Amino acid sequence: MIELTTPRGLPVSVPETVSEGPTIRFKPNQLTDILEYYENNGYVVVSNVIDMDICKELRRLWDSDVKSTQQYIYRQATAKAERHDFNENGWVMNPILNLQSLDPKTLGRFRDFATSKILTNNQIKDIFAKIFDDDVKVVQSMYFEGNSATWEHQDSYYLDSEVIGRMAAAWIAIEPIEASAGRFFICPQSHRLHLDAHGISNNIADNHEVYIESIVRKVRELELEIRAPRLEIGDVLFWNAWTIHGSLDSQHPNKSRSSVTCHAIPASQRFLQLQLRTLDVKTDDINGVKVYRPKDLALVKNRAVLWVESHFPKQFYWMKRTAIRRLARQAG
What we know:
By secondary structure, this protein is an alpha+beta fold. The chain has helices at residues 31-41, 52-66, 104-119, 122-132, 208-222, 300-311, 313-331, and strands at residues 2-5, 11-14, 25-26, 43-46, 73-74, 81-82, 96-97, 136-144, 150-153, 159-161, 168-173, 184-186, 236-240, 245-247, 259-266, 271-273, 277-279, 283-286, 289-292. Strands 3, 4, 7, 8, 11, 13, 15, 18 and 19 form a nine-stranded mixed beta sheet that branches.
């Protein structure tokens, strides 16, 4: 074990090997056991979900196609259009958002492979379907290489199913994730805590830090356990929209943490943004999974928005924050 802290200073013992950690692991075909553990703990780890060759090919396409581009891409931490931010190791430190929506003209190989082989992988689909007791609708995805840490949060604050708490997500290891390489962490059973809804006092436009601090305070007050299980290549950690989680800072000088996250909701339900707006989104059917493509750059209108956003960011993000404030006031 090594002793680390979360982005807001919560202590966590991080296992260096699979055997050191307390997390029970399952095989992809143990669907009943997977569901029982998930419902009791708010997360579950499943081994050998994605074939190693698929993971290696995704990393090859990342290196050959994505890392070499100079174009603006939407990013996980900010949801803004940005160019790559490289560290001294040459890793991209601002993870990309929505692989299924990337520009098909320049990043089409990566977009198609990630969507068809990872986000709609049959074993991932079957596990989500078991959790939902429904077909699956993918609503968001991300790709991480380097990791600058993700603050403690519940996903439901940002996105969810229209039935709040029904969304689930998957963190997919594209390489073995070392203890000091920026592990994903979770608080078991924290999915049973229904914290403050997104509103005027903690809205993301003005008071995001108020929300983050409320999560950290709850973890401290209840002395919640924090786990950061080791994942081998192709392993997947599934978690609930209400489960408190985040990721640790990358501290290893020579280890990246190549991984994909995928957020999904029951196919029969609508998509909820910021607990403020419910959307009946248009989807594509891929491998029996409904795939929503936010800001799909296959569409001319979305490429036009990206151009405005990247060339006039101050004006664009001022308008975006104003719209969020308006929604928060209406909800409050």
